[in-house]
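Forwarding these from the shared drive since the link keeps breaking.
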Amino acid sequence: MVGYLEDICATGLYKDTGNPISIYISEINIDTNYSCLKTRSYNICMFRTLILNAFSTPNKNTYSSVNNWISTLKKISTLISVESQEYRTNYLNKQKEVIQTL
């Protein structure tokens, strides 16, 4: 899994589709996973919590709020896909060390 992450971070593209991806790292603890998906016909936000529950909403106001919040978090995070090779290498090496201790 870390190898796959290394590959997509280095290129900034999903291997299977070639679609672009931006991966950020941050020192902020976030106990919930947030995703926003926007297409021509709809916007949707997905939330996944630590307790294995997930939900999504097509509400436009929620999408706008979460998307703005995520944009704010990106300003205080480090982009490791394509750029910031030193940060990316250090981060991925730490992940490999954690996996080896499991």
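-- next protein --
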Amino acid sequence: MKQKIIIGERYTALLKNKLNELGLTVLALPENPDISPHLAGHTDLSVFYPGDKNIFLAGYLKNTSFQNTLEEAGLHVSFIEEKQSAEYPGDVQLNARILPGIGNKYNKAVKNVIKTIVFLNTNTVSRTILKYLSNKEIKKCSAIQKNKSEIESNNCGVKQGNYKIVDDLRDITKEALVGKEINTVIYDENNKQSTTNIRHSHDLLNTQKYDDPIILNGEIFVANSECCRFTDDCREIQPDFELIHVNQGYAACTTLDCGDGIISSDNGICQAAKNHGIDYLKISQGHISLPGYSYGFIGGSVFLHDNKMVFTGSLRNHPDRESIIQFLSDRCIEPFFLTDEDIFDIGGAVLITPKC
């Protein structure tokens, strides 16, 4: 079966034939009536696809033929709980950039599990999406009322020295929760904490005292209590995603996935990449067309397909053309241009791998 690609229906007439040449079957995204008319056809404001069997949609797509098409392709469709609106940040709840290739290069495998990096603003992205990503990151172990000395004698792989005891398990996330930048924090004996930029679940905030043992990124934490031990139900669940908070709410729009690096005109995005050891190319702001606005963004104008970087239009008038082409060439990625027009922003594209 051909791989499927979601783009706004307003762009299908112009781009469909060329996309078919790439072996892609186009799924036309209906216009979003809840956001700005200029952006109503932008996929990255109406669809979030984490790359597995799940896909998240804006509410206006509920009970539509578009939903049916995705379900027939074997995807589990969920809808964000928030109502979108035309003004920022009411339009960015689904705007997060998945960077699967970067995880393979920059993350350490723990028991053969690699994390997929996600750039997103944790304050503006949908709670529905954050909950989904968080549930994949954190697994509470079952606990029963027993003496904590039994931790080392139970059968779930917890041996002496393999766990850390803290007074209150909320303490390991306390500083990360300040300012609503919610990240998982792994306890460190020397520095007392070490942020890993992974969103933590809200339940640590909503309890008087949090005693259940939890596992975060392969490290085991046990409350400093005489009444807490692991049971045989304990399972170490490694995170699928590493969430990197950025201040830019249009994280998907402003970030171009280049396999093992990114391209962006956004200072905050580039700084986040630098902080996490991710290769990046900083380009000039603007020089990308978006009707109704002064300019568009690189992440909404280009997408990676196999070893091709697919541009909506030409880079001939872009001041960073040579740098962009070289950055791609260094990664054995060749440019492919859908039109002869100057590059323009369509709100990106979502590539769906057939599930059935």
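Helices lie at 9-21, 65-72, 100-106, 127-135, 174-177, 251-254, 267-275, 321-329. Residues 108-113, 137-239 have pLDDT under 50 and may be disordered.

- D.
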